[in-house]
Amino acid sequence: MHRPYFLLTGITALLSLAACRPDAPTTEQAPAITPKPAASTAPDIATPAPPTSTDTLHLPGNQVVALRPSSAAAFEHLAAAETLPQELDAETPEATWLAQAQGRVRRQDLDLLLTPARGPVVRLHSTPETEFKNDSASARYQYWGSLPAAHQWVVQAWYWESDGIVLVDQRTGAKLEVAGYPAASPDGRYVLTTSPGLGGGDQVNSLSLIRIDATGPHVLWQREPEAWAPERARWANPNRIILQRSRPDANGELPDPPRPEYVELTLPTTP
């Protein structure tokens, strides 16, 4: 049975470890959002009591990061720094977001054209609806917005039975396809993506860290937790993150409505 091509399910993550290089100057003017300073910018609320048992996230190189309790108030305090809408579906008009790209991203029939500061135009071609079918060649692309601090355009991609995002570097045109919702660090050096995929379906359940260097985006690591689903991430400073997550019920399903919990993690220093 033919299914709508904007169906949002999961994707198979195409991720690998990558080398990092120094950053380059910004080539697109950021919107009127002032990045938080390097010092902690969490709201003036009481620090949660230490957990009785520390949750952890295992990273490459035998690094273990503690996930400590946080709060909805701390998470919501950081909402103003986000530059993407919370959700995007195939029926959302592109016009508003394209207007903010100052002519560097435009639609030409079925093609989405992105013009980097250096290098050729990046062309993402969508399959006509009448030809969209169950094969690897079918795709539809819609401009979602920008992560100015990280020099990245964000494009939503839909396939026959999967979806993802494509990061396109505004300086070089380099592309990277990843799963989930992206959040850029205040200094623009990293993007963290959250993809909640527990509870059935094809969506990958993953948390991925992407390094942004002078050549474009590169995946540093991806983790697929088995006990919880990463819903959203917001950066409190260049290496501290407040993570919204959810846990499955006794049947292995994510609760509906969601019952989010909040944890804080500090990333190890990366050259």
Which tags fit this structure?
single chain, mainly beta, five-stranded antiparallel beta sheet, four-stranded antiparallel beta sheet, 2 helices, 16 strands, globular
Produce a short descriptive summary:
By secondary structure, this protein is mainly beta.
Give the C-alpha Rg: 19 Å
| Class by SSE composition | mainly beta
The arrangement of helices and strands along the chain is EEHHEEEEEEEEEEEEEE
What would you call the shape? globular
Instruction: Kindly report the spatial arrangement of strands forming the biggest sheet.
Output: 1-2-16-15-14
Give the proportion of residues in helices.
Answer: under 10%
- The overall pLDDT, averaged over residues, is 81
The tally of helices reads: 2
Low-confidence stretches are: 1-53
Q: What count of domains describes the coordinates?
A: 1
For the termini, the CA-CA separation is 50 Å
Question: How many distinct beta strands?
Answer: 16
Strand content: 35-45%
Main sheet: strands, sense, barrel: 5 strands, antiparallel
What features would you describe in this structure?
This protein has 271 residues and is mainly beta. The protein has one domain (55-266). It is built from two helices and 16 strands. The strands form four sheets. Strands 1-2-16-15-14 form a five-stranded antiparallel beta sheet. Strands 6-7-8-9 form a four-stranded antiparallel beta sheet. Mean pLDDT is 81; it is low at 1-53.
